Amino acid sequence: MKGHFLRHFLISLALMCAISSPVALASSTETSRHILVLLAYRIDLYWTQALISGLRDAQQESDVPVEFYFEYLDTKRLESRFTPAQLHSYLIDKYRDTPLSAVFMEPDTAEQMLIHNTSHLLEDKLVVVVGTDHQRIAPVEPFSYVVKRNLLQNNVALIQSLHPDVKKVVIAGGAGHTANWLRENALRLAHEQYPQLEIEVLPPLEPQAFIDALANQPDDAAILITTYLRSPAGLAYNTPAIAKQVLDKTSLPMYAIIDPLLGTGVIGGDLFNARESAYLAMKKTLASLEAGKKRFSTVILPNRYRFDAEALAEHEIDRAQLPLNAQLISAKPVVAHAADSTSSWLSVGFILASTALFFLYRERQKLSQELRSQHSMLEARVEQRTQALKMMAVTDSLTGLINRGEFYRNLKLELRHLRNGPEGNHFAIAMLDLDNFKRINDRFGHPAGDKVLISFASRCNQLTRGPDIIGRLGGEEFAILLPHTNLQQATSILERVRSEVATMRVDLDSGDTVSVTTSIGIVVVDTPSLSTREVMMHVDQMLYTAKTQGKNRVWASCTSTLNANKPKQAELV
């Protein structure tokens, strides 16, 4: 009887603690959010699991109760019953009586809705698109975006930088809209930016055909995996396993756009992380819902260069060659050695089964296990929160670019590389300022000005190269760091930015359309002794000259020329 009483006492005590906890109280007083998540990939794939994990982690940190509803939009599997338009209508009917607050989807699904004109079915919801962007999806559509830009350009530029002898890049991907867009973009990229580089885009193939096609490439080739590999019929494969089989047959360098391939022998790349992106998107969504908003400004995810340390060593790539913000990981899995308490538990259980001590021991074991589990969960949340805070600390909240402090940190690193590098080394820095931007704010309001700044940042992201680093210094002033770039290359790149911005049109919520121009100052830093302040003074001088010479133009020079006080300046109209 004493044991029975003790057992119930401990259970009651635990329940009282749980009921009185802040989390439980918060849950009872908060209004639940109902969020529908439309998945483009199978639920068992690592990508999908990572995306779901990111959503749940952000929700648990916020203490806002959320009911998630997950739907897998596999039109291949359902094509005998549904067209995409019918499927979208069916889902809306299915959740008609559910008070949905928001809908998450991937770009493939968003594009399907735009193509089949079914986006109006969600017009009263906050619709969030998470993933890599399509050029066909524009900010004027009724969606909010958390996207990664220029993944293809960044990784092709990375391959060229780390493997200058490579003459061919073989790109393999899936059969969905993302893969098709990447395929089209790769061909455009080869024609416009890398005419000397052969880019081959593999069509969807069966697994063994993929392996043979990639393993039998010439010695001067490199491989880039873009998305999950799919068959011609749209069936998704175990892409990490296929990548590993390819690398067992060839020593060619392999790069990727999605992070699940790290650990298979893939070197790395500018990678899209589904968990981090979904986590950030969920944070933004809950904040918007709390503020009563049905849409938020586009969030552009920063470059995330990640590399497998062992693969770098295998291909004899010096870490000094990597982009400044690169992260190194170990491909070796971390094996957790949990304490095996089962046997001891059973032993004690058999010995004390008929006594009150058995119940005490069992309850203590349960409580201890719960404490260990909560401790591990808290550690994981602290780590996730730390990473999120680190990202927030270096990111401009409006445009998604790096902020002033982070840009200056990268500039200091580039100056250090210049001082410690070989003679003749150089890099370029550009400062961009929107002309007459104050007029837009004064006439249309600051929300309109914010939309112009977001569009401008997005256009700059699209027009620059992978290694280039873009930051917002404040207001309408931006800066771009261009490693290993001479005066002619820098003026060519920034002149293209200037001319493209001049043709840009931004549609405002008021129905008005505005256009902007930008003045650009460039300095090629070829003087290792300069300080950060001196470099910024020189580039600011070039920007000032561009402004005073009529705006909407590029003005450029070298620090060696400026220091010698020679009037060798190049002006481009």
UniProtKB/TrEMBL annotation:
Keywords: Signal. Residues 425-559 form the GGDEF domain. CDD domains: GGDEF (cd01949). Its cofactor is Mg(2+). Its EC number is 2.7.7.65. It catalyses: 2 GTP = 3',3'-c-di-GMP + 2 diphosphate. This is diguanylate cyclase. The lineage of its organism: Bacteria, Pseudomonadati, Pseudomonadota, Gammaproteobacteria, Oceanospirillales.
